[in-house]
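Submission sheet (multi-component)
Chains listed below:
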Amino acid sequence: MNEASLLNNALLVGAMLFSLGLVGMLTRRNLIVMFLSAELMLQGISVSLAAWSRFHDDWGGHILVIFVLTVAACEAAIALVYVLGVFGRTGILDVAAWQSLGNDSMEKQVDRELPSVDTLSPQWPRLTPAGVQPEIDQNELLEREHI
Amino acid sequence: MRIPPFSSPGLLLAGAVTLTALALWLLLPRSSSTRAARGVGYVFGTVALVAFIMSGRRMGCIGDEVVFSIVSIVAVVSGAATILTRSPVYSAIWFALSLAGVSGVLLVLGAQFLGVATIVVYAGAILVMFLFVLMLAQPSGLAPYDRVSNEPFLSAVSGAVLLGLLSLVIGRMSLNENFSESSAFAGFVANNPALLERQLLQDDHVARLGSQMFGRHLVSVEVAGVLLLVSLIGSIAIVSRNTESQSKTLLRGGLRDE
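Outcome: structure written.
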């Protein structure tokens, strides 16, 4: 494999990782998964940088990747603090819960309402009736997809 | 040299992009995703991956190195699984596997220190993430925000379009003759035969990297250290401010102090 095709392959892999991370960042609603998607984008960038560094036989790309690792660590620290703050206030990890951050004295900013849950209707097993039907916990119902 | 839009590689690339978008849309967590739709999504995703490899070969930018192909497929497939699984715990596990693939790619590229550092640094980071997930995860099944994602079709389309544009640019670059045949390094070496040894691929790779880092880029290292310190102090300050205000609120019987 010559140098140019190695460069192109690695750039292609980096582009794939970056766009997968972009899709995850745009569409997933769990804050932790969004965080993993951001790390995936950084991995794609790292692969591209290392490939260019190999092609030009220069250390710049490697040094830059090391600094990318550093900045990713800083970002992880700050982001996890805010995620914990959101989770402490609302108890959910939804990205729409960001708007609950902020002082209470400030005007409430509503970017979008916390989306309503639309799920499949639960499929209960058919059992022979015995005794009194227990009360169904609505909160628990929301958490289940299939029984 | 240009790729005409409807020549065979271009058409293959367009098909691959479309299939990627469809597969991502079908596989992303949605409210109305059935098992059959997911099966179709898996098939589309596999076909899209094969189509990308084929169009890469037509454009002449996919080589034949087996190790590189294996590790890059591991990296890309498990990266896709990271964003497609519903459970965040599985997401973290898939991301760890993707990191293993990425570090394999880095090792093939000759970046030994980076390959090892990726595993070492991110293994710790992922372990922490894992603890967070286990601490915060919903004990009873998946939360609604894990099962329904936000505008899956639009984001799948935008990701696939970005991927298509990037791979088109890479393919054009590889078709450029004076780029692929006489690369920058090759032309440089042809003029200076003494430089035939590549400095990145020597035995003392890590020592050379360290001397570069603490010689030429010393100021940047200092700045990175300051950045780490600032983020450490900042995160501690934010956490302690939160807990302080919460404990004040508790002490005053729920009354706000403003």
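Remark: The domain at 3-100 of chain A is CATH 1.10.287.3510 (Helix Hairpins).
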